[in-house]
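_Backbone structure tokens_
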Amino acid sequence: MYRWTRFVFSLVSFLLFACGSGPAPLDAAIADAGTDALVIPDAGGDPLAIACVAPVHGDMVLGSAGDPIHFVAALGDPAAITSVRIEGEAVTPDAFGLVSRDLVAREGIQSVEVAITLEDGTERTELCSFAVAPRYADASEPLDGTVLVQLGDEAIRGEGGTSPDATSLSDVVRTAASTSVAARGIAIGLPAGPQTPPSCEPECSSAYVTRITYTGSRIVGDAMLSSTTGDGGRIVINGVVPRIELDVAIDAMVAFEVPVSGTGTVSIVDVMVYAELEITEVGGELALVTVRSDLLGGGVTASLTGIADEMNRLEAEFATEQEVERGDALSIRAELAGGLADAVSTLLDEVVGGATPEGPSTRVLPAIASGASAPIEIETVVRASEVSPELLVLRVATRYDAPGRGGGGGAPTRTSRGAPIFALASALPVETETPAAIAVSGAVLSQALHAHWLAGGLEGVVAPDMVVAPDMVVAPDMVVAPDMVVAPDMIRFTSALPVIAQLGAAGALSIATSFEATFAGPAPYGTSTTVRVAAIADARLTGTGADPTIVVDRLSELRVSVPAGASESDRRTLRSYAAILAHHVATFSTGDAMPALPFVGLVVPEAITIDGASVATGFAAGTRLSVADADVSLVGSQFVIAGDLVATTP
């Protein structure tokens, strides 16, 4: 045990020196990344022992392509070793069993091979795999801007129809306004309690209202409202209300000095509605507020009862009409316009702020282990918007996590830096002539794959007959026919890192995976043979619709650790089956275990709450405005669908 005690002391001294004076590389140092949670095995002098020290196996290193990495490994018994190679280059262990080499980082999963040869000629290799990314997204927090919803002029103000055939935001407003939403808006615009107009002294007319109370309201006919976008980042609501009826109780002076009181109805016909809504941020989420509203034009007539003298009644009706038509701050028109605008604002606030992907927030995905599952949580939050006269753009944040992570709810306890994020995480606007488009950043792939891994999706016992592979697996320097390779009887699978997928040009994807498999079965597997595998699969997007298929074409990189004492034939078998398993992992993780891309739709609520009352919108429960009948394309570093905006119901 003396050698390892001495080794630990030497290692601590080495790390203190590496992290001490002088400029610190990225990630406190990518040069000795992973030392925060350093675990040194007590190998007891095992000459075949190889420990990944810095970065440790499964580490998540913060850095970019081209950054320097000072890689360090530890050997069990340097005295029994005749040669050591790191990535094919001979290195010399120090007196305490440490070997190191300066390497260059690459983004994604990077694997470093350490190979040793003992005095008796026995060879052994080990893989030390770690992730390298310029940024990691905490799984517990939404990542901003990963989804972009883009509505053009036709999707905003188009007139495709009312529910259930809505094709624009205007159709939503029009449908809801023709139901109780507009009526409720008028109702909340009624001033509360008796209203006393300003004094008309000293030049009062022969008839004037001294007090008026609005006791009820209703809209007669369908309100025809629509929405547009305007300058200054505002949504504009305009249209016509055929007739507004107001129930009133009035006190008035008529014939210069005769007080009268009556009740009745005031009708305002052909009312032009105008309102401006501004999108603002409240508590980290978007909200619409009314910044301007008005009711324009429209003839006013009053009909009163309770006043016996006809001339007095006619004068009181005229005075009531004048009161409703007045243009000062107490004008009922301003109050009604504000209430109606606030009602429509409440509707659009829920529609615009309710951009969500189809399906439940918790998805139960299959795990790689036979019969096991991996539940994940998906959350979307509208965080920002851009409004111009021709366009409404919503930027949506996404969160993918494993429920109960940290030991509760059945999810495994994992320490993770987060989902690796490469290049630009935010989705970019789409150049299209279609009414609507949705873009999903490639960062969402990382979030989903990371959540699946957190949920234990890459752990457990795998039955060999569940390993799916094509007739031929193409890998570097080999083409493997799965039915010609001896399969194990059992595979225990574990992965210290999530699968990492990166988008490339022309619809290409790169899928990196690193895992450890323990086999049992016929030769060369025996009772227990463990290998580490690192692979990169070249894949592409295919199929139609909003949930495309990712097809793995070939393995462009395959690295397999070699157990000590394996013959050349055994190595070929292990490497061949590792290729089959790597192909399966890449296909499974981006296929069956990958939730549909979050091409979010705008959720139209069945009812909204206006001033404490539940009001029907005219739409069925679960109605969504989403891009329909569109195929996914891969444009740059994002997935895009573009097409018509269509209302769909479950």
